Amino acid sequence: xxxxxxxxxxxxxxxxxxxxxxxxxxxxxxxxxxxxxxxxxxxxxxxxxxxxxxxxxxxxxxxxxxxxxxxxxxxxxxxxxxxxxxxxxxxxxxxxxxxxxxxxxxxxxxxxxxxxxxxxxxxxxxxxxxxxxxxxxxxxxxxxxxxxxxxxxxxxxx
Length: 158
Description:
The protein is an alpha+beta fold.
């Protein structure tokens, strides 16, 4: 099986740069599973004897599963840096930054909404996404606190 290097790797004294094809037999099959899971290599699909890289492998983006909204989000390194820089700011500083984000920053906004638990940040993100008219899975009603039931219970209680 042929592989493509996703990170610089060294097999048998030969170095492979990112994107280079690693010929069949170079990678020990017993180690290939670990190397694939750790993101060092990816399988290359064979189509009629010609090799084509797996289309799901993109070294420039990372797919992050969002558990609350139950979907995956593709982000690049620059967006991750922006996310971590924003989440570390005070609420007021973060709100200012959120207000200046563009359509290119929608993945950052979605990550902030999913991960940052501060209500002010969630509200600012929802407002900004609405201003950008982005179709997303974020629903403002989902983030509001549930209304408390009166102590007497429902009318049908026996």
